[in-house]
Structures are given as structure tokens and as C-alpha cells.
Amino acid sequence: MPDTRVLVVDDERSMRELLAIMLKQAGHEVTVADGGEAAIQALKSDTFDLVITDLRMRRVDGLAVLRAAKEHSPPTVVLVVTAFASTETAVEAMKLGAYDYLTKPFKLDEIKLTIANALERKRLQDENQALKRQLRRQRGFENFIGKSRQMLDIFDTIRKAAEGVSTVLVTGESGTGKELVARAIHDESPRRNGPFVSVNCGAIPETLMESELFGHAKGAFTGAVADTVGLFSAAAGGTLFLDEITEVPPSVQVKLLRAIQEREIRRVGDTRDLKVDVRLIAASNRDVAKAVADGALREDLFYRLNVIPVHLPPLRERREDIPPLVGHFLTSLSAKLGRPVRGVTPEALTVLEHHHWPGNVRELENVIERALVLGSGDTLEASALPSDLGLPRNVQEKPVEIPEEGLDLEATLSQIEQRYIQIALARTGGVQTRAAELLRVSFRQFRYKLQKYARLAGRS
Questions:
Q1: CATH code of 444's domain
Q2: Whole-structure pTM over 0.70, yes or no?
Q3: For residues 422 and 294, what is the distance between their CA atoms, to the nearest angstrom?
Q4: Do 169 and 273 have their domain in common?
Q5: Peptide bond preceding 392 in cis form (omega within 30 of 0)
Q6: Of residues 455 and 251, which shows the higher confidence score?
Q7: Which of 229, 224, 225 is nearest to 212 (CA)?
């Protein structure tokens, strides 16, 4: 590790000079301290990659230096050296965070190898932290783009919510970034090193919902050949994100309420309660108040979930965020696709700014990706954008007329519904979950409609 900064601490001049010469010859930058007091002052004013300290020194010993190093710079690696080795002092030094413990007199080859291993550990720790920071940027708070007043307020709420453990309820249309909010809260919280478990409740069959969330014991039902850990247990120490919370059956909502209140769960077929340490974040693309009024969501569960509400506005209500979002997606997607793009033409940006965006930010990202794949040149032009970009809004704006002879309203609405389903499937490449989100219906509702129209087609 070139240009590594090392602090050598010893009240014996000869030992300081020996270690300093050896370290400088290896290409390291060396600072020496004559005893523990000088070392602690150096640690307060500067940062070091490695500290090599004698254990027994006048007035301030090596354990105090070790404590100071870990207090002022936890990533610093500390190596303790002494002529008076004992099991007790070795154990204490290791408990305080020392990397290793060497006894005088030592061979130069021995300490060189130990230093090399210690610095390699420091390098790996630094790389690991850098990768974690990069991962948090990719999936967390820095992925939010927006300069509108609404988004700035949401950023502030996310920061404050991340500091606590209260449940959060995120609402907003499909594609507005509800899971991004949940990930950002997790990544900015003290639980960031724990698991983040995300589940779409609308995609789990009702009969399996309880088992998926809480787990089941061996023999609980046919096919339960072993104990299974549920999503609550899988998220222990971290965050559990329940998307489409209104799709949870009422029978499971009761048990979910108890899990939130008591911080306990009971697996299907088990008689024991298990403690769980989970931060819960729920989300819905429905009008949650209406869901409560309709009986789809228990009122007591709603109040338990809605401790910190976060509502994401649709993209059409914050059009000033479209240009920075376009710029963000151009940068990230051009790197992903290996196609350098300098920017977007004014004509293309005007089209994007005036679209209704029923699929919100997710739809915008998909449109930009499609334009980059199918377009050419180093600028995104209007000609590369989908020709039907404004179709849903245009269809809604057509004048409605009733023929003299009347019409079959149910059949007409079914035709319109089928057409929108076809458009949604075409736009999402046949991915049904994404098509359901684009139409703002649950996956279960979307699948039902597909099956209904398939049956009608089979009869005709």
C-alpha cells in the first residue's frame, strides 16, 4: 500500500528509529511519537492508516493509545508490541480492537509480514466501505432526482424517518418510486448493514400469504416437509418492505397487526411466539383511506402503519422535475447500454415534458431506454421517442358520443379495457407485473382480467 501513513509509538528511541527506518524503506510515510501522550495528541490532529505502539510506556500506556486510535479513527489498524507479554494483556488489547500482538524481541521478517498483513486488511476494509457507499448511491437516497418543492419536502421526511424505528406508509401511483423511498430510508438508517427484504403482497396467493410472511413449522400443512423461515425472520435486524399492503387478506392483517404491536410472530403450525427485530415500511398505489372505508384494510392496522406518511406525487404534478430526470436517465442508461449520448434535443424534451406520464418515473425511464436502443447519433431526438407516447391521454380527450340506436355500455367498456391491457403489455414487453403497475391495478386484478378476456375469446 503506497503512501501509507504510519504512527510509531515507543518511549525507547532505538526502537522508534529501527521501526521508522524499516517502514520508510518500504515506502511508507512515518510519524514517530515519544510515548503515549505524544501519540494521543498526534491522533487528535491527524489520521493514520496504521499505528504501531509499545504496550508498556511511562505515564500513558499502549492500551490508552489503542483506545484513542479507535475513538478518533475506527478504521485505523493498530499493532501492539511489548516485551512483557501476558495472556491477560493480549486478550484485553484484542478486545479493544488491536489487529495483532507481537512480543519483543522480534525478527524483522516477522514484523514485516505482520505489517503487510495488517495493511492488506486495511486496504480490503477501505475497498469494502467504498463499495458499500457506491451501492448506497446506486439504490438509495442519491437516486432521487427532483428540484420541485414536493420532492424537497419528501427528501427531508426521508432523512428524519431514517433516524427512528417508526413504521412508514408510502403512497403514490405506480412508478413514482415507492420502493426507492423504502430503500433510501433503510440505507440512511442505523439498520443499513442489515437486510432489506422487499415483497409484493399482490403477487402472493392468498393461501400462502401467512406462511410467506411468518414462516411455517414442519408438518403444518401438506408439503411442509421442513421448518421454513418467513420474511419477517429473514429481515431480522433490517427492514421489511410490504408493497401493495391493501392486498393482504383480512385474516392475515390481524396477525400483521399483532406482529407490529408486540414485535412477535408465530409461524403457521407452531405453538411458540418468536421475537422479531424488524423496521416495517408499507406501500400502496391505492387510495388508502378509501381502502379502509371499503373494508380492504383494517382501520387499526392503517393507524399502526401510518405513523410516518410519505406521499409521492405523480410526475405530471411536478413537471419541473422532468428535465433533471431525463438528464439522470441519459447518463445512467447510456453507461449501461454502452452508447454515449451528449444530451436531448429541445423538441424531444418538449414532447417528454408535455406527456401525461400515467406510468410516472418508471415509464419515463423505460421510454428513455427504448429511445437509446432504437435511436442513433449522440443526441436523443424526438424521432426516437415512441409514436404512441401520448396515446392514453389522447384517447381520454376524444369526444364521447352515443349512437341514436344506443350502445352496450358493458361491452364498450370491456373493449376499451382490453385495448389498454394490450397497450400496457406491448409497452412493458409482455411483463404482466409491470403492465399491472402501468394501469394502476394490483397484479391479482390484472391476472383476473387477462383470464376473463381469454375465456371470452375462447367462447367466440
A1: 1.10.10.60
A2: no
A3: 29
A4: yes
A5: no
A6: 251
A7: 229
